[in-house]
TrEMBL record:
InterPro entries: 6-hairpin_glycosidase_sf, 6hp_glycosidase-like_sf, GH94_catalytic. Keywords: Glycosyltransferase, Signal, Transferase. It comes from Hanamia caeni. This is Glycosyl hydrolase 94 catalytic domain-containing protein. Residues 42-306 form the Glycosyl hydrolase 94 catalytic domain. GO terms for biological process: carbohydrate metabolic process. The keyword Signal applies. One of its GO terms (molecular function) is glycosyltransferase activity. Residues 1-17 form the signal peptide. The keyword Signal applies. Transmembrane segments: none annotated.
Amino acid sequence: MMRLKILIVICLLLAFAWQDSLFSQSHTGIKSEILKDSSLNRVKSMAAGLIETGFNAGSGYGEVWIRDFNTFIELSCKLMPRDSIKDRLRVFFQMQGDDGNIVDGYIPKKKADVGYNYIYSKNAPDFAGHKNTVETDQETSLIQAVYKYVTATKDYNFLNENIDGKSVQSRLSDALEFLMNKRYSPEYGLIYGATTVDWGDVQPETKWGVVLDSTSHLAIDIYDNAMLVIALNNYIELFPGSKRWEDVRDKIRANIRKYLWDEKGQKFIPHIYLNGSPFPASFDENKINYHGGTTVAIKAGLLNKKEIQEVNEQMLRDVKLSGAMSIGLTIYPPYPEGYFKNKGMFPYGYQNGGDWTWFGARTITQLAKYGFLKEAYHEIRPMIDRVIKNNGFYEWYTVDGKPAGSGSFRGSAGVLYTAITTLQESASQ
């Protein structure tokens, strides 16, 4: 009997060793394939070529947007003069509201003709700012961007720079205080904004949909809160010993898991509504899978490796069911026709089911970081192929692969460069 048990153990050990050998060979093969793929470096070169030409979001935008700049500032730090980057960041602080809020973006006054209720500041007399108040990621995007700038350049003096009587550090803290004072739900211990699609900035109640008003339905979502966790992590690293913000960070993390994570469905629910839903009572919104916010949650460290594998498999199923080209599919299924007054938010249009490299490439970065090299390489290929095919970085794509939006979108270039670099670095280790 003992001999039989020993024999079984030996067989099991040999089986495990065989599986490990196959996995190692497979892993080695994919690493070699990644490192030999010249198209990856070709797209990186194209991305660098676009980023070094400016700071506005893209050819379809005249503004410098902080949510976009935050996604390509690391590459800007490799290519552009340090002071030119700092100058762009400084304007956001110069235009900061008395309550600590941060504008979405700014543009030279003479070009301020889009239709926003423009914001002006004596500290930045040459610029006009604007803020899409339905969204709650401007403050967290700026904190993340400053962190990336300082980490890349080692320009820690910038944090002490005085802007209209306050240091940059104080202004970063003020930005966090704005979220606690004006966008925080004591009931759930999470921040909120208006109802939007995942990471989007268009609400359903009005035609343009970018201004928080009396028609807005306030809601809590994963994207805003995951962005806050990342920003708090960055702030705490820049300013060690920030006990208040450490406590806030830990509570936000816990409440995300408590209220937003659907353990049974292994996904984040779309919204917690504070004053009712804008959608019909018969509509089951929880069937929708929010890809972008989920990816940001992975970056924030809110999911373990097993959960990451599961949500990635869900995204791939969504891509297949929708007919989309890549993991950049924003959500699935999309909101039905007529649910948004903004005509661009039709099913599979714009943020309502468009295919965005801007977020899909961030998924690739996280997959590579967590060791899912085969998945990351497989899922980045459609993004690489369409950049080469279309000779550029489009803002988004329709589910049938047609490019749309800004033709030279720096956010897409920045995140794709980062994803490729992470993939290559992971393959070389």
